[in-house]
Every structure is written in structure tokens, then in C-alpha cells.
């Protein structure tokens, strides 16, 4: 099972900051994502208007979620498929296991599914004698390393090329000693050689779904390697895993969101493969599954509908928020301690596992707002993180020191004259202590701050309020 270690975020982050290999990988990968997205947006003048359209599509769907889910399920059944309604991750795991057992499956190929990570599906299948094989290149190397993804679209974001090569040599024992992996395509070719026999031997193929289309009962998956296509067309049985908010009303809505997805995720106009699957193989079809199953997972999402967290359900899993997040950029995804890292994980994880287990995540933010500014469906992520901080405070989950300091600040803030006097005294004292220094490396009673960062020394000129009043008097 994927162990929830979000309560240890500070320790996880400290280890990440001290890991030179991870810092090298993060430094290389982060810049590429940012530049590619910026270039893709520049090429599409109507991108901002398209963001509004995407937001409105998702808002409309969420306002009528029950209708569109029922419509989707009816059209899946009409196309010869079956929908499995699952309230919890355990329900979804058991539904997948039952389908695999009925198919007599010994090997299962998998392609692009973060929901399977949320379900801890691989461990469940292995415990019941079924071998899951990840077919996406990044997820394949992660499986070789017995790790979990550190990024929702680039699972091996935290690795360098030498890490990949070392793991291939360790696990692919028949590799010639003089075989050199100069390019990513060399690694991809080696993986494809090993995976081809797995694709052909698999009894069941499991994929995620970027979107579910109510109008047709179709599932949509986007990939850059074609592994999703092979996973859902070669085996006799195809299982699509999706959470309930992935449904959209029409094909036109799906294509509008697809125009946002790849540009926001990888800077492509469209992913190399965009595959629509509708039902079972029909007469005259050259390929396709004999059985088509959709696992619809709730796992706490319906509890978000109608609350201040409903906007999080607009997420289309592009990862733009984490690609632009300064905190994720130095800690990587594993520090967040569960399936979903970065700003989107800081909002979603407390919903799914509880704020008592994930309260550190909404606090692990600079609130710079970059996540909201790049989100293709305009999710106000900083606002939602503030809501979680409020919930955490209301439930007395924040440390006693933080609560007492906030109470002290609130006492002064409710007394403006006293507040101004106290801030003047504090600024004056710090100014004397600074004695020309730009920042304090350590400060009594402020160890929680100076342990991880410098405390800037106040600039000459008094408090902000005093300087503002002076500027007003001077007509500025």
C-alpha cells in the first residue's frame, strides 16, 4: 500500500534538500516544463479565453454531476460495457480483482493511471497472485525501483539519466556490458523490447482516463509513447479507472479541455496519442477488447461537492501547478508523502486522507500565486489551501506555539494604537540589533523561522504604516 507520510513533510523536505542527485534532477527538469508551456501559450492567442471555457465546462458538469454520471453509465452499457460504482479505494480494488479473476488473468498491463496509485492497486494484485506491469516508460522505471511516482505526468521526475541506466543494468541482466544509453530514445527502445512480450501475454489491460464523455460513454487517455493504446486494444479485457469528476458532457467539451491539457502539461499542442475508447469490439473491428469495464471511484470526492473545496474537482491533472511551484521545485514529489504532490496535492490530499494526516501540506506554500496563475481551469489553489489552514486551526491541529503566537498577534491587532506602538518598538529594536546587517541568521524566539531561512532586517524609515502615512502627506 502507498504509505501516507504527509505528517512527516518537514523531515521529508529536509532529506530532499540534502539530496544532491534529486536537486540535480529537479533543476534540469523544471526549467524545461516552464519554457515549453510559455511557448505553447504564446502560440495560441485565445488561450486565456480557452481557460474560461474550460472552467465553465467543469463548473457546469459539477453542478449537474449526478445527471452526467448516469448518462455516461447508460451509454457505456449501450456500447456493451459495464460501469462499477465504487465508494472507496477498497471497493475499487476488489472490483478490479474480481474482473481479473473472472478473466483468469495472470499478467495485467497498465498504462497511465494515478487513480491506481490512489487505490494502491499494484500491491493488491500482487498479493493475489496477479503480476501488474507498468508500460509507461517513467512508471516502468519506477516499478523497477519499487518506488512511487514523484509527479503526476512525469513519474520519474526525480531521477537523472544515470539513475535510469543503472536500474536498467541491474534489472535487465542480459544487457551487453558495452551497451550505451546516450539518449532517452535508447532507454525507450530497451524498455519496449522487454515490454512487447508483456503486451502480448496480458489477459487484462488497465488504463486511467483523462476524461469520460457522457454523450458517448467513451473514455479518453493521452500518452506520448502509445502504451495506452496497446494496453487497451491487445488484451481481451480493458478496465478504465477514473474518479467521478473526470466526466464531461460532450465530445466538443472534451476537445476544448484537450486543447488546454497538453499545452499546460508538456507544452505540446496535443499529446502524441489521444485515444477514445467506446465499449467492446464490434463486428468488423480489427482489434479491441471483448470486455470493457469502467471503475468509477468516489473516495471522498462527492463530499467536496457543494463545499468550499468543490473548485478542486475542476482539476484536469496537467501538473502545471507543481511545475511552477517553488516549494515542489526544491523538494520534489515524494516529500508530500502520498499520491498527489504540489499545490493540487496540498488541497486534494487532506480531502482524501484527512487534514489530521496532511495538515502540513497546505502550510507548505509561499502563497506566491503562481499555481493559480497557470492553472488551465483557474482553480484558486491558494484560497483553497487557506481554507484547509482554517479547518486545521478550528480543530486545534496546529502546534500549540503557533496557536499561542497567533492569539497574541490577534490581541494586539484588535487594539490599533497598541499594535502600532508595539510594531514601532519591534522595528526599532531589530534595527539596532541588525547594525547594518541584511538579515539575521538566528533569532531568539524565532528559531522556527531562522532554522530554514534568514530573517530580513528592517529597512530604515519605520513601519510600513508610518511610511505610507508620510507618503500620503507628501502627496505621493
TrEMBL record:
What are its GO biological-process terms? lactate metabolic process
* Domain 4Fe-4S ferredoxin-type: residue ranges: 305-335
Q: Does the keyword Oxidoreductase apply?
A: no
Question: Has UniProt tagged this entry with the keyword Isomerase?
Answer: no
Q: What GO molecular functions are on record for this protein?
A: 4 iron, 4 sulfur cluster binding; metal ion binding
User: Which InterPro entries does UniProt cross-reference here?
Assistant: 4Fe4S_Fe-S-bd, 4Fe4S_Fe_S_CS, FTHF_cligase-like_sf, Helical_ferredxn, LUD_dom, LutB/LldF, NagB/RpiA_transferase-like
Tell me the keywords, alphabetical order.
4Fe-4S, Electron transport, Iron, Iron-sulfur, Metal-binding, Repeat, Transport
Q: Which residues form the signal peptide?
A: none
Query: Know the name of this protein?
Result: Iron-sulfur cluster-binding protein
Q: Which organism is it from?
A: Falsiroseomonas bella
Amino acid at each position: 500500500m502507498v504509505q501516507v507520510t504527509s505528517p512527516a513533510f518537514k523531515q521529508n523536505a529536509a532529506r530532499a534538500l540534502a539530496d544532491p542527485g534529486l536537486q540535480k534532477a529537479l533543476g534540469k527538469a523544471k526549467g524545461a516544463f516552464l519554457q515549453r508551456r510559455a511557448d505553447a501559450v504564446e502560440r495560441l492567442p485565445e488561450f486565456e479565453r480557452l481557460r474560461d471555457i474550460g472552467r465553465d465546462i467543469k463548473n457546469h458538469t459539477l453542478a449537474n454531476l449526478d445527471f452526467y454520471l448516469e448518462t455516461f453509465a447508460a451509454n457505456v452499457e449501450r456500447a456493451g460495457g459495464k460501469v462499477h460504482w465504487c465508494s472507496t479505494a477498497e471497493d475499487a480494488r476488489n472490483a478490479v480483482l474480481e474482473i481479473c479473476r473472472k478473466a483468469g488473468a495472470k499478467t495485467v498491463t497498465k498504462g497511465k493511471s494515478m487513480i491506481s496509485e490512489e487505490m494502491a492497486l499494484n500491491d493488491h494484485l500482487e498479493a493475489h497472485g496477479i503480476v501488474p506491469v507498468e508500460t509507461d516508460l517513467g512508471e516502468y522505471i519506477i516499478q523497477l525501483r519499487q518506488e512511487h511516482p514523484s509527479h503526476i505526468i512525469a513519474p520519474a521526475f526525480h531521477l537523472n539519466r544515470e539513475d535510469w541506466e543503472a536500474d536498467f543494468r541491474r534489472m535487465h541482466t542480459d544487457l551487453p556490458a558495452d551497451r550505451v544509453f546516450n539518449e532517452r530514445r535508447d532507454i525507450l527502445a530497451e524498455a519496449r523490447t522487454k515490454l512487447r512480450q508483456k503486451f502480448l501475454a496480458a489477459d487484462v489491460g488497465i488504463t486511467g482516463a483523462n476524461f469520460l464523455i457522457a454523450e458517448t460513454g467513451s473514455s479518453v487517455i493521452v500518452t506520448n509513447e502509445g502504451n495506452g493504446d496497446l494496453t487497451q486494444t491487445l488484451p481481451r479485457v480493458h478496465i478504465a479507472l477514473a474518479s467521478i469528476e473526470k466526466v464531461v458532457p460532450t465530445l466538443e467539451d472534451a476537445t476544448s479541455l484537450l486543447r488546454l491539457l497538453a499545452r499546460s502539461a508538456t507544452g505540446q499542442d496535443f499529446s502524441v496519442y489521444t485515444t477514445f475508447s467506446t465499449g467492446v469490439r464490434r463486428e468488423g473491428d480489427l482489434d479491441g477488447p471483448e470486455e470493457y469495464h469502467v471503475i468509477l471511484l468516489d473516495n471522498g470526492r462527492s463530499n467536496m461537492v457543494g463545499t468550499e473545496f468543490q473548485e478542486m474537482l475542476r482539476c484536469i491533472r496537467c501538473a502545471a501547478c507543481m511545475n511552477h511551484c517553488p516549494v515542489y521545485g526544491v523538494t520534489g514529489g515524494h516529500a508530500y508523502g502520498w499520491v498527489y504532490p504540489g499545490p493540487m496535492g496540498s488541497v486534494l490530499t487532506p480531502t482524501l486522507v484527512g487534514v489530521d494526516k496532511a495538515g502540513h501540506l497546505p502550510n507548505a506554500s509561499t502563497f506566491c500565486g503562481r499555481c493559480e496563475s497557470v492553472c488551465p481551469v483557474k482553480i484558486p489553489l491558494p484560497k483553497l489551501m487557506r481554507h484547509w489552514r482554517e479547518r486545521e486551526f478550528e480543530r486545534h491541529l496546529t502546534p500549540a506555539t503557533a496557536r499561542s503566537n497567533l492569539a497574541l498577534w490577534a490581541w494586539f491587532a484588535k487594539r490599533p494604537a497598541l499594535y502600532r506602538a508595539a510594531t514601532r518598538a519591534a522595528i526599532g529594536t531589530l534595527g539596532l540589533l541588525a547594525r547594518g546587517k541584511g538579515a539575521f541568521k538566528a533569532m531568539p524566539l524565532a528559531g522556527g523561522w531562522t532554522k530554514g531561512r534568514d530573517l530580513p532586517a528592517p529597512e530604515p524609515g519605520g513601519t510600513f504604516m508610518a511610511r505610507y502615512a508620510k507618503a500620503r502627506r507628501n502627496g505621493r
